Amino acid sequence: MSEIPKDLLDSFRPPAFPGSFFLSFEGIEGAGKSTQLKHAKEFLENKGFRVLVLREPGGTSFGEKLRKSILESKEPINPLAEAHLFCSSRAQLLQEVTLKELNNPGTIVILDRYLDSTIAYQGKARNLGTKTVLELHKHFPLNLVPHMTIYIKISLETSHNRQKMRNAPKDYFESQGDDFYKLLISGYEEAAALFPKRISIIDGEKSFDEVKEQISNQLEALIQSREEVLK
Ligand code: TYD
Fold first, then answer.
1. Using a 6 Å cutoff on CB, does residue 56 contact ligand 1?
2. Mind listing the pLDDT tens digit for each residue in 169-205?
3. How many distinct helices (H) and strands (E) make up the chain?
């Protein structure tokens, strides 16, 4: 693993609004992220929270323009340019939406992909390096990280099989080969090792219902632990 200075890691912290939660969902293609995210939203709404799901890149009108410029690009984008585009979309979304929403107690903002996607995709698969990605994020508001990140982990083979079954058109990243996916998996491993408290690894090889249960248990534990603190 690359050497990351402690003071760089220490610049990352969750937002300090009492009574609201910031979450993110991560995983490679075929992990079941979108479907599990829907269930997590329902689970949290049933507990009385107001839940907002936002996607990255995008979520603001500026961010959606950046999303198109990346995902519809026909020519290769320089990795550093790519990382900056994702950071721009993220900073705008944080300022325009996420932070305002988190200021309301009882709110949960769930990001469909966040910092760990940049570590995996740009840092590892695009070879920019995790340290460079973290350095790009060390200033406010990009230094804000979720209270919990749900990483649904699957193998390359499972990703292949599920993508074959789905047979959906592929975007800029999805059309990459096996080596790219292997790097993504190792990028997520690296992120999980750097942020072990924040990133909760879910075994995505299990059945849909089992994955759903693992996620609900993690969310329940997070809510309980915060309720204890707020008592
Ligand atoms: P999207 O259609 O939202 O993908 P998915 O349904 O898999 O979440 O497209 C987002 C793509 O952008 C996805 O392939 C991952 C990639 N990405 C990065 O490369 N870096 C990032 O920081 C983020 C947020 C996404």
1. yes
2. 766 777 788 899 999 999 999 999 999 999 999 999 9
3. 10, 5
pTM over 0.90: yes
Run of H or E residues at 111: strand 107-112
| 6-230, CATH topology level | Rossmann fold (3.40.50)
160, amino acid identity = H
Nearest CA to ligand 1 atom 13: 173
Of 64, 82, 70, the C-alpha closest to 127 is 82
Cβ neighbourhood burial of 176 (10 Å; 0-12, 13-18, 19+) = middle
Domain boundaries, the chain: 6-230
